[in-house]
Amino acid sequence: MPPRIAFSTLAFPDATLAAAVSLGRRWGYAGVELRLIDGELIDPSMPAARRAQVSRTLAGLPVVAVDSSIRITGTDPGPELRRFLQLASDWNSPLVRVFGGDLGPPPRRQRQLQAAARVLEDAVPLAARLGVAIGVETHDAFSASSTVAELLALLSAEGVPADLVGAVWDSHHPHRAGETPAEVYANLGSRILLAQVKDARRTAGGDWQLVPLGAGEVPVKEMLSLLQAAGYPHWFSVEWEKRWHPEIEAPEVALPQHLDLLARWLGS
Questions:
Q1: What sign results for the dihedral spanned by CA atoms 100, 103, 107, 108?
Q2: Is the confidence at residue 1, as pLDDT, over 70?
């Protein structure tokens, strides 16, 4: 199967969904990761008529993930997670992205991980019925894949299928946490349900600046090679975070550049 490359609407804070979809399709992207709709974060209580309008706007462009802001270590995330699962089902998306959230020091940390595992386990019956998986992103206190793996191990111990709760590998955050792509893959392996691509370099002040693909220090090419060699069956998605970083290049510049280089690196 040729690699499937999508883009996140996070790149389009000032555009309608229709404009973002039209541009992405014109540039050659095969799918879309929904984070913004008409420039706004997704409202999980969106009425049915609005959901149907979104489906029409997508016009057959596959949705690879519906991205929530849910933090599963937060206060009562279960109801919102169930609403996002239904949204994803309505848009024929195979995945809902969640964040892990914050973690305290031991022994509070272990209690938080166990509570987060229960949140995910409670959502599994609905996820299974709808055919939508849940992906925990390598982000915030879960930036290290080892932490995501620790959470997933709790679910495996309870018999939760790997195809219903897994990981979203954001290329940048494990690198910031000091992990190599080989370590990330060793920790998460077949439980990786989405590979999000971005590149960045550290500034003189110690912060990180998002840059065009190949212009930074994130080992994206090694990440892609590992996934391809393992027969990774899911999507690659370009996450150009224009919403959070308005100073970076416009999507009209960044997204074609990412797609061109990804296609060459992936041999498509």
A1: negative
A2: no
